[in-house]
From TrEMBL:
Record organism: Pseudomonas shirazensis
Gene3D superfamilies according to UniProt: Endonuclease/exonuclease/phosphatase
Recorded family membership: Belongs to the DNA repair enzymes AP/ExoA family.
Keywords: Hydrolase, Magnesium, Metal-binding
Pfam family, one: Exo_endo_phos
Keyword Cytoplasm attached: no
Ranges where the Endonuclease/exonuclease/phosphatase domain occurs: 7-251
Designated name of the protein: Exodeoxyribonuclease III
Length: 264
């Protein structure tokens, strides 16, 4: 298997953040980039600009909200599915799956779930259940697979600057965390936590109360690997510099590097 850099980035509006996206692609050159929260219908997706940057892409947009895309450098991503099984009538664009560079990549934007309790939190848990069910099938297939995206879950209190003021938020609810743990229990590996078990690493800093300036962040963007890929995991990190750019998203790209198989 050749070396690959795979990233996930909640762009929070691809049209307004396009200069930031292009600067990141040029500087970091991920082989595969999963984007969430395009907030644009398909007809306004900036396909030409992204192709000019050297990337082929699949995308599923939606006016004003949601939207996911998979970008690939030097290869054409082959679409496998749009939307989760059992969610065929869901109007929200949140899941895209493709085969590219010898890896199956699932790009997902899990529902936020706020305010909770309520219908939005119920939808989050329903979506999570469908994801868990589908993820088991992906594991059973044995294909090298990455689940990449904004999971809208802070897995543990270590993954947030201070959990006290967020206790009522959907991202920290026991039900949300339990669903995430069920994915790990299936056999998925949280790549960043696997390499950095004790470090506090953030991927999101909201726009309020100077959270970025204070490094008051959360880790909600994750890359989960199946057992076939874990031996190839070489490095992982967060391109925090992107969060400091003008008109930045409130997320920063999170990435992994897969290399030659580690020796046992």
């Amino acid at each position: 298997m050749k070396a690959l850099k795979i990233a996930t980035f909640n762009i929070n509006g691809i049209r307004s953040r396009l200069p930031v996206l292009l600067a990141w692609l040029e500087r970091e050159q991920p082989d595969i980039a999963c984007l969430q929260e395009l907030k644009a219908p398909d007809q306004t997706f900036p396909l030409q600009a992204i192709e000019a940057a050297g990337y082929s892409c699949l995308f599923q947009g939606q006016p004003s909200w949601n939207g996911v895309a998979i970008l690939a450098r030097g290869a054409e991503p082959l679409e496998v599915r749009r939307g989760l099984p059992g969610m065929e009538h869901d109007p929200q664009s949140r899941y895209l799956e493709a085969a590219v560079h010898g890896v199956l990549v699932a790009c997902l934007y899990l529902p936020n779930g706020n305010p909770q309790p309520g219908p939005k939190f119920d939808y989050k848990l329903e979506w999570f259940e469908r994801l868990i069910e589908h993820a088991q099938g992906l594991l059973d297939s044995g294909h090298p697979t990455v689940l990449a995206g904004d999971f809208n879950v802070v897995p543990t209190d270590k993954d947030i600057y201070d959990p006290r003021s967020w206790r009522k938020d959907a991202l920290l609810q026991p039900e949300s965390r339990a669903c995430y743990q069920r994915l790990l229990d299936q056999g998925w590996t949280d790549a960043l936590r696997h390499l950095y078990p004790d470090e506090q690493v953030f991927t999101f800093w909201d726009y309020f109360r100077k959270h970025w300036e204070r490094n008051a962040g959360l880790r909600i963007d994750h890359l989960l690997l199946n057992a076939e890929l874990v031996p190839y995991l070489k490095n992982a990190g967060v391109d925090a510099w992107v969060r400091n750019e003008p008109k930045a998203s409130d997320h920063a790209p999170t990435w992994i590097e897969l290399g030659t198989r580690k020796h046992r």
